[in-house]
Amino acid sequence: MAKKKKQFAVIGLGRFGGSVCKELYQRGHEVLAIDKDEDKVSEYVSYATHAMQVDTTDENAMKQIGIGNFEHVVVAIGDNIQASILTTLVLKEMNVPTVWVKAQNNYHHKVLEKIGADLVVHPESDMGRRIAHNMASEKVIDFIDLSDEYSIVELRATDKVNQKTLVDLNVRAKYGVTILAMKRGEEMNISPMPDDLIHQGDMLVVMGHKLDINRFEDEGL
Ligand code: ADP
Fold first, then answer.
1. Span 161-176, pLDDT tens digits
2. Whose C-alpha lies nearest to ligand 1, atom 7?
3. Is 209 helix (H, G, I), strand (E, B) or coil?
4. N or C: which end of the chain has fewer CB within 10 A?
5. CATH number of the domain where residue 96 is located
């Protein structure tokens, strides 16, 4: 059976909201693109299922377009923090199950959490951190923060570990981290065995405390 299409709405078609909208639409989802600026709406007609001009702080207008029936709404109103907060409030009062909001700063973040935003994102600072991580270490390919303390990091195997097995590395005992998977070229090994050989250039997917992963990256790789 075909996977059920999810219904999305994206509010605010600036650089961030615009790219979220285009990506969802290109992936085959139904997307309602909303902005209060008419030019933005015209620009997005061909990048969304529907594009509408609405001031999303206007509760009645939001009711009229049936925004409460959407499963997932992204609020990407940039500079106007007041409009972003009001829009989020309207959406949560209408019981939209999942509301993700772009925050401008930490105060904005706190308020959004208090009024029920399901996820608050900081695309600029997140991207900055990601780039800094990659610049600071050639071994780090990508990472996901699981919490303030724990991450999953993709690390590039250096010649130091070339032709070694997971037993040789003994990372769990030495560093307290776990190698979840290994990738060589396009081939993904999602349950690496203790005697699987690592080649230089392989990607290792490592989970653990950030400090332990750093230690493994510095000393073990
Ligand atoms: P970015 O930093 O991601 O480029 P912008 O601040 O440039 O974000 O864009 C935010 C978008 O949100 C703009 O296109 C703006 O017209 C839209 N917007 C702002 N306030 C409202 C509102 N009350 N209702 C709907 N759209 C809004």
1. 999 999 999 999 999 9
2. 14
3. strand
4. N
5. 3.40.50.720
- Distance from the alpha carbon of residue 103 to the mean position of ligand 1, in angstroms: 12
**Residue with CA at minimum distance from ligand 1 atom 22:** 55
The ranges of the chain with pLDDT < 70 are 1-5
Dist. CA 102 → ligand 1 center (Å): 11
Answer yes or no: pTM beyond 0.80. no
How many domains are there within the chain? Answer: 2
Q: What ipTM did this prediction achieve?
A: 0.94
Residue 98's Cβ-count burial label (10 Å; 0-12, 13-18, 19+) is: middle
Span from the CA of 187 to the centroid of ligand 1 (angstroms) = 42
pLDDT of residue 187: 93
Binding pocket residue ranges, ligand 1, CB within 6 Å: 11-17, 35-37, 40, 55-57, 76-80, 83
| Same domain, yes or no: 12 and 113 | yes
Domain that holds residue 86: 7-124
User: Do 87 and 178 fall within a single domain?
Assistant: no
pLDDT score recorded for residue 218? 87
Residues 192 and 216 in one domain: yes
Buried b or exposed e, range 188-219, using 16+ CB within 10 angstroms: eeeebeeeeebeeebbbbbbbebebbbbbbee
